[in-house]
Amino acid sequence: MIAPLACSLLVVAACSAKRPPPQDAPARSGDPADIKGTPEHIRRFRDAPVVVDGELVAMLRFGELPARLAPRMTTLADGRLARRYRMSDWLAALGLDLATVQAVHWHGGRGRVAVIPGDAIRKWPDELLFSFTGGTSGKPRMHWVSPHFRPNDQIDLVSAVAIYLTRRPPSWDADRGALLLDGAVVTLPYADLTHRGGVRIYVGGRIAGTLKRKRLPDADRAVDGRYRLLPALQRASPSFAHATLIGEDGAILTTLPSERLTQATFEAPTDASGHLRLYLPDPPPLEVEAFILD
């Protein structure tokens, strides 16, 4: 006779043997396609890359937002004022024609993607918003306040944004929980995100160049071995009037007229770093991750 406990164990084992493994299960932490929730080619960036038809045009950080993008101040339930940004305003500030936007894909962790059709952005511009966790710093996050439109998924923190104008956007397959293009699972199709590191230079709201050690000419060197800043910035925008310096976490450090930069020098960033150390006539030195020129 088999003891009751042994019977129970046999039943459980039999049931487990008949249960098929889950299909299209999400990747476990540590799998190449899902390390802490974000694919490897996005994880190379410490911040959220923004690609338009595959072209890297910006990073979604507070200090690197287009200068002409105005916030929409919102009163929270506890009475505090919070900064919100309309998705439609942001796209226009990037220089995009809203009428040509087919879709915007907001990528989060664990392979989650919120697919926003261009028609929804045009129809309900006041109801599709984003902000930053620190108000004027921190990670970008989405806010779903639309009673009219509900995306396929709701994400919180944003790891990348893909905007599709002329190239065919992938479609969301609910059964597989993935984006598909021509039957294949994709994340950011068309995009070449092999570039990493360096300090970004923005002109007109878009990346116009980067400062990287291997690309700096010897002619830019100062007598102390550092590099002169003004010639490096003028290659991206020959007649810029002001430079806004962006530091860690997307925070705005200061805005300086171009003439204040004539004596500025910097220690070149390594290829893998995302900042440089800038020396102005007035100490202390500044750790800079991006320049916004106007």
Q: Rough shape?
A: globular
- Counting DSSP H or I runs of 4 or more residues, the number of helices is 5
Q: Give the low-pLDDT segments.
A: 1-38
Helix content: 10-25%
In round numbers, the mean pLDDT is: 84
Compute the gyration radius: what is it? 24 Å
Output the structural class: alpha+beta
Beta content: 25-35%
Please, how many domains?
2
Could you spell the SSE succession in H and E letters?
A: HHEEEEHEEHEEEEEEEEEHEEEEEE
* Order of strands across the main sheet: 2-1-9-5-6
Could you tell me how far the N terminus lies from the C terminus, measured between alpha carbons in angstroms? 87 Å
Outline the biggest β-sheet. 5 strands, mixed
In total, the number of strands is 21
Report on the structure:
- The termini are far apart.
- The chain folds into 2 domains: about 40-185, no CATH class; about 200-294, no CATH class.
- The protein is of the alpha+beta class.
- Helices cover about 15% and strands about 30% of the residues.
Descriptors for this entry?
globular; about 290 residues; 21 strands; about 15% helix; disordered N terminus; five-stranded mixed β-sheet; about 30% strand; alpha+beta; 2 domains
